[in-house]
Design the sequence.
């Protein structure tokens, strides 16, 4: 997800991505429009939970998780229609919506 590409200035390191999710309240404070700030916080919190679950070794309720991913995707599209979701995030969310209990 966040593999850097040397010193080219492209990509993220794991530390930068983690810091984003740890400090999203501070980042949200930079958004002046209160309605946009609330939408941003909602989406970032949900994506943070999804990434935490994906990186966990814990068993999950696959049906509940699939629904959570679907709702997160729908919210992202409805709340930020102007944002072109990255292909990586798109593939992750749609892959997770298709997970099956084994």
Sequence:
């Amino acid at each position: 997800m966040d593999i850097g590409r040397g010193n080219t200035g492209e990509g993220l390191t794991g530390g930068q991505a983690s810091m984003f999710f740890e400090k999203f309240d501070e980042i949200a404070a930079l958004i002046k429009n209160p309605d946009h700030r609330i939408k941003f916080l909602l989406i970032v919190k949900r994506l943070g939970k999804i990434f935490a679950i994906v990186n966990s070794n814990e068993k999950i309720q696959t049906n509940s998780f699939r629904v959570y991913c679907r709702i997160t995707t729908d919210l992202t599209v409805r709340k930020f229609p102007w944002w072109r979701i990255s292909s990586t995030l798109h593939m992750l969310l749609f892959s997770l919506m298709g997970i099956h209990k084994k």
